[in-house]
Structures are given as C-alpha cells and as structure tokens.
Amino acid sequence: MKVSYKWLKEYFDLDVEPKVLAEKIERTAVEVDQVTRAEDGLKKIIVGYTLDVRPHPNSDHLNICQVEVGEDEPIQIVCGAPNVAKGQYVIVALHGARIKDNVKIKRSKMRGEQSNGMICALQEIGFDEKVVPKVYVNGIYVFPEDSGVKPGEPVYSYLGMDDDVIDTSVTPNRGDLFSMDGNAYEIGAIYDKKLTLNHRQLKTVDETDNIDDLLKVKIDAPDDVLAYQMGIVKNVTIAPSPFWLQVRLMTAGVRPINNVVDITNYIMLKYGQPLHAFDYDKLSAKEIHVGYSPDQTKFVTLDGEERSLKATDLMIKDGDKNIAMAGVMGGLDTEIDDHTHTVVIESAIFDPIKVRKTARYHVLHSEASMRFERGINPATVTEALHEALELAAQFGDGKAVKDQITAVKPNPQAVEVTLDLTRINHVLGTQLSVDEVTKILERLQFTVQVTDETFVVTVPARRWDIHIPADILEEIARIYGYDNLPSTLPTGSTTIGRLTTSQQVIRGVRSILQGSGLNQAMSYGLTTAQKAKLFMMQSSEETKLDFPMSLDHAVLRMNLISGLLDDVAYNVARKEANVALYEQGRVFYRTDGTDRPTEVEHLAGAITGSLETKNWYGKEAPVDFYQLKGIVDLLLHDLNFEESISYVASKEYPEMHPGRTADIYLGDKVIGFMGQVHPQVAKQFKIPETYVFELDLQAILDAPKKIQHYDPISKYPAITRDVALLIDQKVSNTEIVAALQAASNRHLEKIQLFDVYAGKHIPEGKKSVAYTLTYRDKHNTLTEEEVNKEFEQAIESLKKAFKVEIR
C-alpha cells in the first residue's frame, strides 16, 4: 500500500524523517519496497495561465500560447495539445527545466515560431498514466477552479509531489495495514503517539423518505455474508471531485473518476473498507439479493469484459439480474455516470475465501478483493458507510436518506488473551517489568488488566490477526524492538558433522560419473502423460496434477530418461553434437487405488556423439553399447556389492533397441537397464543415436555391501591359457563366462574375451570366440599340472553345456 506521509501527519504530530520512518516500519511491522518523492529530479516546473491561444500559421495542429508565469511579461509557448485553450491554469516547464527521465527543456523554434518552454501533461512530469484523470490522458493537465493555484508558483505542493510516499508490502496476516487508519494505529504504537481519527458523521440527510420504501435487501447466502449495509443519497450531481481529493487519490495510485466513485475509493484507502456505488435509477427490481447464479451465466464487469460466471461466484443481484461480483468488481449496467441522480452505496464484509476464489478464477485482482481476502474491520463498516454518504451528499449537492438498510449487522468482537510475565520474559529472553509490558500493550491501543503479573489483554476487532498468547508475544517483541532483544548462542553438546551412508554413496556415484565425462542435469519432476510412461522399470498408475500450469507439466515423472532426452534434444538443436548427461532424482510410482505416489530414488544417464573429441593423436569415436557398459560397470563395481553384477540381453522395453539392450542384475534382482534408444523413439525426440541407462538407486543404496574394499595383490606369478571355441550364435558371452567360473576352482582369476568371428570358414549359425583364462594362487606358486587339470575341467564343462568345439 502507498502510505502518504502528509496524510499520516493528519493523525498526529509526526516529526520523523520519512526514510527513517520507513526503516522503522520495516524493522517493526511489514516490508517497505521504497520511499518516493515525486518532485525529486524535477526542476523549474511552475503554474502558468494561458492569456491567449491562437492557431499556428504553419501547422494544422499546433497553437501559439501567451502564458503568464509570474514574470513582468508573459512568455510564448508553442503547444500541440488538443485541449489547450484560453483561460486555463496549466503546468509549465520553463527554459532550463528538468521533466520526467531528466529531459531538459530548452528554447526553440517550432515551424518558425519561438517557444520558450513547454505546457505539460501529468505523464510528462512523472505521473503514471493509470492515475491521470481520463479527460487529461491525451492532453495537457488543467487545474480546476478550486485548486487555488497562482501563476509562477511551483506545481509540486499543489499536485502532492512534495509528499513522501512509503510503499509497503503488506503480508496476508496484516490486512489492517491496507488502510491509513491501520497504518496510523501501527505508527502511533511504534512512536508512542496518540492518534486523532477524523471520521465524519452523517449530517446532510433528508428525513422525508423511508429507505424501506425505496429499496429491499435479501441475503440468499447468509453463510458467506458477514456484514451487509446500504445507504442512499438523492439528488446527486455527478461532477469532478474536489481538487484535494483528486490529489490524494493520485498520490495513493488511484485514478480520479467522479465525485461518487472517488469517495468510495477514498473511504477504502482511509478505513480499509471497500464500498460500491450503484445507480439507483438503473435498478429495475429495486430489490437487492446476495447469492449465486447458474454456471456459465454471462456478466459484463466495469472494465467492459464479458465473463462466464461459476456457480460458486457470490453475486450482488437486482432481482434476478447480476449487478456486481461480490467483493471483486461491479457491473457495467449499474455504473455511476454523468446522468446519475440517486446513488446506492454498499458497505459489506464477504467470506474472504469466496472472494479469493472468484478473483483468482477470473484473474480479476482488484484493490477491493485484495482487502476482502485479507480481512475487514467489522467495527468500522457502519462508520465508513456514514462518511461515504455524508461526502456524497456534500460533494454532489444532494441529501442522504436518513436511515440505512442493515441486512446483516456487523459483529465486531474483541478477543481476550491471557498470559503471564514469566512466560513473556522466558520466550523473549528479556527482563521486562509489569509496567513496561503494560505500556507496550497500551501503545497498541489494547485494554490491559493485570493481576499478580498475569495480563488479561483485550484486543479490539481491528486486529483480527491476534488470537493466542503467541500473537501477543510477537506484538510485545515488535514494539519493544527486535534489535533490543538479547542474542545468545545455543548451548549443548557438540557433535562432528558427517554425511550419512546414503549421502556418501550418492556423492561417490556423482564423482564417478563426472570423472567418466558426464555432466549433471536437472530435469522437471513434471512431464507429459506420454513421456511419463516411457522407459518404466515397473508398472505404475499416472499421478496427475489437478491444476497444471501447462500440459507439458501435468503428470509426475515415472522415469528420468525422458527428461534427459529432452535435455539432449535441446543441446542437439543448438549444434552441440557431443552430449553426455546424468541425473540423480526421484520418480513417482503409484498403485491403483492409492492417492499418494511412492517416491523412489533413481539414477540415469544419456550419451550421444562421442565422449572423446578428435585430436592430433586419435580420431573421434562415437559412443557405443560397450563404452556405456564400461561406465555403468565401473560405477557398480566401485560400490563393492556382496552379490555379483550381471548383464542379460532384454527385449522388454519397447522404447529401447531390441538387440542393444540389457537388464542389469544384482544377484537375481533387476536393478536397472541400459542400451540404445530405439531409433523411432530417438526420431520423436529429434535426437541422433543415443545410449542410456537407468538404475534403481534406492535398491543400490539398500543392497548389502562388503566391508573390505580391496584385495591384496598376490606376489606369486600368473599362468594363462588361451582357448578358441566354435559355438552356436545364440549362446552369449555371459553364459560362457558363468559356465567357466562354475567349473573352475578358486585359482581362476580372470576371463578375458579377445576375439569374436563369424563368416568365411565358419559354419552357418556358428561363431568363433576366443578367451584368455588367467590362473593364480594367492598363497603359493601354481604348477603346470594344477592349471592344466583345472583348465581341462572347464573345457569339458563347456562341451557338455553348449556342445562347443575346440578350434
């Protein structure tokens, strides 16, 4: 909210510098965005009076003006504004003046005629266009007759530009600070000043009419209306507001409209009570209903937009016709215009949740809805209405109907909170006395009763955010000063900080992958329904968002690979051919019939192009299945599982290449898969040949691991045997290695495949594979006889298992 320093001084004598006050507000109450003074940076901008205006002889839109500026002789200014005329008090920037954006005004000739300054619009001296009266948006500003301006005097004080405006960012719990009264109470408490409230009484009334004969009010939704009152002003003349009121509204960031609308905005700023004015003659039924309309009913708001209502939108209706969205915005059909003679003013409190839902659904966050959402002081609903009626009668030369309609009576309730001095000092760490606490609470305008160091605090309705002792403790701390509270370091036994086992494993995994040339990526946890179902390691139901921001982020992911492929596609589209990424994060599985998904840690990688770029000593080699397998194998080997890791060819993943994909087993449990992305899927993602892996990191973290992470190197020599086998194409290397290990004794240390051949001189359906078997004894030197015996056992086992031939 924009808090006027001059307006604050009407409540009490305030002699604090505005920036010092803003700093105190920020430390005590709410955040302050900025403190501004509209005249800063401006220079030599004064009031002028147009003595004569005649058309420019060489232009069809310019005028030559003789302007009185408080000097001996008038000055000549060439002006192109369409609304310039003789006999106007205007804003003049003299030669050498500085206007908005530090633009300097100089004497010049315009189409052959001398111009010694500039007649300005409000926008040209720094006013935001949204606060400029509509009649002056496209022309110069003309001071009204009641402004009291004099030629030659600076314009700043007349237009409120010498006022300091403190722009506060009000938190949701401090809705009371959305009013000048609320800010005055707060600042009065901070500086221990008694404020004077200038609330006008309703005096200008016509006692001849009975309001019940003029208007009826019926509340059809009593649970959603906390207060509802209406008053009527007759024989109103719609005209511009008094100049002081227009300036006050513009300073607060509100555009002046006319006397009636400006009064409702003024009361809203002063009391924090939004009001709405209806043209009585535009009400056909003369019976106001507060309730609901059918879903998708069309309604045109004051901004001219047609809106489709929800069945849950609380509406103000004239009979069955909608005339306003309760707490949000009025309707165009009953707006106040130049032909209005009788005005109905509404003062109410609506359910804040209803107002917020309506404003959010229709994207219509008005100043009124902002206040209704955060709360309204029920104690001033009637006072605000009475002052609005009185001002409307005064400014519109009319009279208010004596009585008002109260359909729902405001119910201001004070709250009693009890707490004791010991508790206060214990929580705040202070040594406050009973008198000090009492004085702080009285500065807040709370009523206090003290009995044996126990305080019974009565909180007025204007502070509806206070309910419990903790709220009172916060108020005491704020006014006493957070910077005055003692600060102490926490006491207790210290412990050495360290990572958990899971954190150590995850960091180790990241280190290995980064050392292997992969960069960490972070993808969205939300994706499309189609991508969420790709590369799934287990069956799962989708987990959809009720209100997704976009269709691209509507479902919780069930894999990491699809997000990495999006990242690969992003880089490839920008001419990055070599991309190697990994991601560690959570996927979300949900079984049918459950509301909450299960979060599972996963680890995935994606590589396209080459991990090694070409250089003077080697060529660039594209990544393949075995290079990816080497990275995964290094990763898993370093974790030192008790059970062995194995890779088994798989065709279960439709998104993967059927001949270049393998399941990764830990013992007899699948913990992941790896391989090439299916070419058709790669085409959908618009990426080249790409290899990926995904692991169940949670299963890896939970798997038992060996304590010893190394084997001593044997000092005894190794003996090797080479063997070439002719075997069926269907038999895999994994099966052969497993058979050799099963048939060998403890001396077989390593099995290395060094040749695979199929083709000429090899029977159809067969292949030739060659292995080097390494034998070693960790405690003794092996003999040829021991090695030959163990080697022959292994070969015989292969012959029986796979019918191999020794070549």
From TrEMBL:
Cofactor mode of binding and number, as noted: Binds 2 magnesium ions per tetramer.
E.C. code: 6.1.1.20
Keywords assigned by UniProt, alphabetized: Aminoacyl-tRNA synthetase, ATP-binding, Cytoplasm, Ligase, Magnesium, Metal-binding, Nucleotide-binding, Protein biosynthesis, RNA-binding, tRNA-binding
Main localization (coarse): cytoplasm
GO biological process: phenylalanyl-tRNA aminoacylation
GO cellular component, one term: phenylalanine-tRNA ligase complex
Annotated CDD domains: PheRS_beta_core, tRNA_bind_bactPheRS
Family: Belongs to the phenylalanyl-tRNA synthetase beta subunit family. Type 1 subfamily.
Protein name: Phenylalanine--tRNA ligase beta subunit
Organism expressing this protein natively: Pediococcus damnosus
